[in-house]
Each structure stands twice: as structure tokens, then as C-alpha cells.
Amino acid sequence: MALCLKQVFNKDKTFRPRKKFEPGTQRFELYKKAQASLKSGLDLKMVVQLPPGESINDWIAVHVVDFFNRINLIYGTMSEYCTEKSCPIMSGGLKYEYRWQDDSKYKKPTKLSAPQYMCMLMDWIEMLINNEDIFPTRIGVPFPKQFQQVCTKILTRLFRVFVHVYIHHFDSIINMGAEAHVNTCYKHFYYFIREFSLIDHRELEPLVRMPQ
Fold first, then answer.
1. How far apart, in Å, are the Cα atoms of 32 and each of 36, 98, 174?
2. Tens of pLDDT along 79-97?
């Protein structure tokens, strides 16, 4: 799937620079293992399962970074269709509206356009995964106690990108010939977050029928 995504989407339009794993590290080896499983054609429900003897936090960290890269690539390529004019509100249809909140500029949930929301989201995730106190890369440095809680928040917000893209820009996905690849990426994401109960089931309601 990784190769297919690069063939379908324009890698020069990545919304944010790709986060890479350091060769020679345990996380890099886990990433290679995960990619090999994806390319082998195994059932995605099997691919997301924690390999025997591996750390669950390392496994989650690898996937959070990989999903950030993939979703970043998908949205970056189709961002020309998601504008202030076409998407003045970050939403998933008429029923769901997503407001932005962080610990600095937006301390209360704030209504933003979809492009603004995406910019804030990708900057926020990039800041977190580059923070050694949250995503440690040095051998022997433990993950913080709130690590999975932080990952839940990241993945919940990344899920909202899928919601917006599917509901508001599905025609563009089809026109790019990218439907199968976006669907595969979404299913991989969905099975992963369900395998480790990383997103509240209520957040999944906008796309509840999608995995089928």
C-alpha cells in the first residue's frame, strides 16, 4: 500500500514534511516489520496485531507516526479542493462540526474553516511527535504515563480528517483514481484503533458503515 499511495498521490504536496524513523533503532525495525506485513497482502485485521514480544507503546508510536505521514499525504494532495470558500467550517456533513482547541492560542473550542483546522492539526501533531518527552527515541528512555492518552487524542483528530475528506471531497478522490488507496488506508487505521481501543466509539459514528 505504501508504494501505491506514492504512485497515486503527489509526494511533493505532502501537507507537512514526513516524519522519518531513525535507521538502526527498534522503532525503525518495527516500522519495517509493519510495512512488510502490509505489502504481503495479509488481512488488515491481522496486520495491526501486536507482534509477539514487542512493546505496545512502541507499536502504537510507529503507527501514529505512519498514519500522520499517510493522512498528511492524502490531504496535502487534495488540499486544493478544500478551501476557505468550499469548506468554511470543519465538518463532516450537516450533523458533525469539529472545533479546534489546544493549550496555547485556542483555549476554548473555536470554529475554524477546514483548511485552518487542518493546518492547526498537522502543526500540533508534528510538535507532539517531535517532542522527546512524549515520543522518546533514545534507547532506555521510557514513554510517559500519559502516552496512550496523547495518542488517543492524536488519532481521534486524524480520524476527523477521514470524515471530512470522505463526506465533502469523495468526488475528488474518485477523480484522482485514489478511492481504493484511501479506502485501504482508512481500513488500516480503523482496524488499528479498534484493536487497541484507541478512539471512543462515538467518534466513529460519521463513518460507521465504512469498514464494511
1. 6, 34, 30
2. 999 999 999 999 999 999 9
- 82 annotated ligand-binding residue: yes
Q: Is 160 exposed, middle or buried (0-12, 13-18, 19+ CB in 10 A)?
A: buried
In one-letter notation, the amino acid at residue 26 is Q
Nearest partner of 63 among 19, 4, 95, judged by Cα: 19
Amino acid sitting at position 24: G
d(CA 91, CA 47): 31
Domain-embedded: residue 86? yes
What tens digit of pLDDT does each residue of 167-210 get? 999 999 999 898 988 999 999 999 999 999 999 999 999 997 66
Q: What is the pTM of this model?
A: 0.86
Question: How many folded domains does the chain comprise?
Answer: 1
In a domain, 81, yes or no: yes
